[in-house]
Write a structure and sequence with these properties.
By secondary structure, the protein is an alpha/beta fold. The chain folds into 3 domains: 2-153, Cobalamin-binding domain (Rossmann fold); 181-429, Alpha-Beta Barrel (TIM Barrel), CATH 3.20.20; 442-469, no CATH class. It is 42% helix and 17% strand. The protein has 20 helices and 18 strands. The strands form 4 sheets. A 7-stranded mixed beta sheet has the order 3-1-4-5-6-7-8, sandwiched between helices. The longest helix has 20 residues, at 451-470. The protein starts with a strand and ends with a helix. The model has no long low-confidence stretch (mean pLDDT 93).
């Protein structure tokens, strides 16, 4: 049995960081691979690194029995369907399987494509494994598929304990791809310590994807993965949807990282209210090597924050940023323009003005976007204010909602204005001084003490500084 797993390229309007400056390994596909390599020969093709012509040659020569394609962004689905078409044309009756966020949340629509045979709903390790074992989708829980032009939805698969699922297989990365995975030029890797989120923000579908469950890996399993990653990288992105849920678990993990002497740097997500409630946890995280945090700020209006189900208030935002900056964290904070249906031009102006006072290291902006299987989507459809159903337009930067007081042109203008007036890592020397003063030079020397690694890092640092100084 031969399996080819394809990571599609980013959506064309992907804007969270300068192009090419951030590229992490295809962890989702590596998780699938890690659970089937005892059953089949598996290859991973990263289309973010390699072009279409190489993919065609790979399919023709390898002739896979199953071709799995990941689709996490709704706006990717058209590109993914094009990859499915190519896969059909260049394979010898290989079955095309789609998985990820969009196929899970819109399985019927995904299967309308004549090039898609099977959809894996929710997480795919055990579902895909059973499909390979049986070589038939019939009765495999968690699958949707076509049979005589009829769409069949098998029963939902109960989510498994994460500690019983095999770890990702990082050995399948091939030369050029392995060298390209980086964070602003620094060799980087990624991992999960949990899946799901216990909160229910109106615009988010994480809780639906993970069947309203939140699960964590035990500390021993996480440390084992980190020891593997450390062989080739000192920087790891913990990609959890919500890393900070159980403070005691985070404390135990940080203690284990320190006791193991990993001396790595980490980036992950955090909630504003968790910073305010548990500042001591973030002090422990800083000691363990956590340095980059993503905060979902979303709005500066308490009324809007409540409507979005964020469960914190504006005063906590300023407090959280101060706490994190004092501890030497680099903060990326996302802000939604038009987060309230009643917003006006004055509200957009005010949002940008307040954002400037927060001194975020990497401010990002998006528009309120009604993705599938979200409370927001249902509300927008019920109100009859959905502008477009074309998924290719769901980029976070294209207006999808009709506002009574704002035109689409005004929304597009203000998101461009926000990005032009708040640059990534502005005043870089001031920020670098703050970070090094808080953490101390020995903190970073310990983490980059390996001479070979330091030597490879020099051109990366030069490139990163150049990007930051030029804004590009």
């Amino acid at each position: 049995m031969r399996i080819l797993l394809i990571q599609p390229d980013y959506p064309k309007d992907y804007r969270y960081g300068p192009k090419g400056a951030i590229l992490f390994p295809p962890l989702g596909l590596e998780c699938i691979a890690g659970n089937i390599t005892d059953l089949a020969d598996v290859r991973i093709f990263d289309h973010r690194v390699f072009d279409i012509e190489k993919l065609k040659r790979e399919i023709s020569s390898y002739d896979p029995n199953y071709i799995g394609i990941s689709c996490n962004f709704s706006t990717q689905i058209y590109h993914v369907n094009a990859l499915a078409k190519i896969s059909k044309e260049y394979s010898n009756n290989g079955k095309i399987v789609l998985g990820g966020w969009h196929p899970t949340l819109a399985p019927d629509e995904t299967l309308y494509s004549p090039y898609v045979d099977i959809v894996v709903r929710s997480e795919g390790e055990l579902t895909f494994r059973e499909l390979i074992e049986k070589d038939n989708p019939k009765g495999v829980k968690g699958l949707s598929y076509k049979n005589n032009n009829k769409i069949i939805h098998n029963d939902t698969r109960k989510l498994e304990d994460l500690n019983l699922i095999k770890s990702p297989d990082r050995s399948l990365r091939i030369g050029k791809a392995r060298k390209r995975y980086n964070f602003f030029g620094i060799p980087a890797d990624c991992l999960e310590t949990s899946r799901g989120c216990p909160f229910r923000c109106k615009f988010c579908n994480v809780h639906n994807f993970y069947q309203h469950k939140y699960r964590i890996k035990n500390t021993q399993k996480i440390i084992k993965e980190l020891l593997e990653i450390r062989k080739h990288s000192r920087f790891a992105y913990i990609i959890d949807d919500n890393f900070m849920v159980f403070p005691d678990h985070i404390t135990d993990l940080c203690d284990a990282i320190i006791d193991t002497g990993l001396n790595m740097l980490f980036m992950t997500t955090a909630r504003v209210d968790m910073v305010s409630k548990h500042p001591q946890i973030f002090e422990k995280m800083a000691d363990a090597g956590f340095i980059f945090l993503f905060l979902g700020i979303e709005s500066f209006s308490n009324k809007t924050l409540k409507n979005l189900n964020k469960q914190f208030e504006f005063k906590e935002i300023r407090n959280a940023i101060k706490i994190l900056h004092d501890l030497g964290f680099i903060i990326q904070g996302n802000i939604i323009l038009g987060a309230n249906y009643d917003d006006t031009v004055a509200d957009l102006e005010s949002t940008i003005k307040i954002a400037k006072t927060l001194d975020l290291d990497l401010p990002t902006f998006s528009l309120l976007t009604p993705y599938p299987m979200t409370e927001l989507r249902t509300e927008v459809e019920d109100k009859g204010i959905l502008i477009d159903r074309e998924w290719r337009e769901y980029t976070w930067f294209k207006p999808m909602i009709k506002y009574p007081n704002l035109t689409s042109e005004q929304l597009e203008h203000y998101i461009q204005k926000a990005y032009s007036e708040l640059r990534f890592f502005s005043s870089p020397m001031r920020r670098i001084t703050r970070i090094t003063k808080s953490r101390g030079l020995p903190y970073f020397i310990r983490r980059f003490a390996n001479f070979k690694f330091m030597k490879s890092l020099i051109p990366s640092v030069k490139n990163m500084v150049s990007r930051l100084l030029t804004g590009g």
